[in-house]
Amino acid sequence: MLSEKDLERYASQLIMPEIEEEGQSILLKSKVLIIGAGGLGNPTAIFCSAAGIGNIDICDNDNIELSNLNRQIAFSINDIGHSKSRVLRNYCLNLNPNLKINSIINRFDNKFPLNDYDIILDCSDNVETKYTANISAHKHNKTLISASATQFEGQLAVFKSGKFKNLPCYECIFPKDLHQQTNLNCREIGIIGPVTNLISSLQVTETIRELFIEKSFKKKQSFTKNTLAGNLLLYDCIQQEITKIKLKKNLNCNVCK
Ligand SMILES: [Zn+2]
What we know:
Layout: H1 4-9, H2 11-14, H3 20-29, E1 31-35, H4 41-51, E2 55-59, H5 84-95, E3 100-104, E4 119-122, H6 127-139, E5 143-150, E6 153-159, H7 170-173, H8 176-179, H9 186-189, H10 193-214, H11 222-225, E7 231-236, E8 241-246
Parallel strand pairs: 1-2, 1-4, 2-3, 4-5
Antiparallel strand pairs: 5-6, 6-7, 7-8
Helix pairs in contact: 4-5, 4-10
């Protein structure tokens, strides 16, 4: 049962038949890990908190710099030099103090324990972390919602290779040998804030959907009927297009074959 305050706070969500009080309770009991507290991690953590995802861990070991402020919307000039994950956690708790939000000041690595999480949100800005998150999520049979954005483009995919053998993983789509040369981050090749924010909005929408799907909640409703898993959403802001591409599993993939 939701409290009076929660009924009021989440009124605009639970008024919809796709969510209702039960859906909001599922969100409040869920736990997600956000890897990266930068351009994607900022709006993703904010939208997760605003939507009432009850338990959120934010993992990042970087400190805030002036050049982050064109896109990392939880940070102000007073935060420069401070820990990204800690400042982001405080911003989110200010927005929604009843949630459990933890700051983990560490770089994500293959020893990071994932058992407690319902869903892993990859908001990192480097492919090395993306490959590590993919391997860990696959091993732990966790849904991985992977986002990235550079320059005027962004992409989002839901990976469930650990749960369903026929579905691809991140490395099926981006084989390591081909992508090692292109390991450039936002600082090196550029980004505008609205692109990261849009991709984060898509990421949190899919997070809410996947949390419902995991709990078999309202299986036949339009919102929860279809998962994005097995597809890639591409946003091209030069062409003003969002495209959905069907993905294929690589039967020789080093991670999920
Ligand atoms: Zn694979």
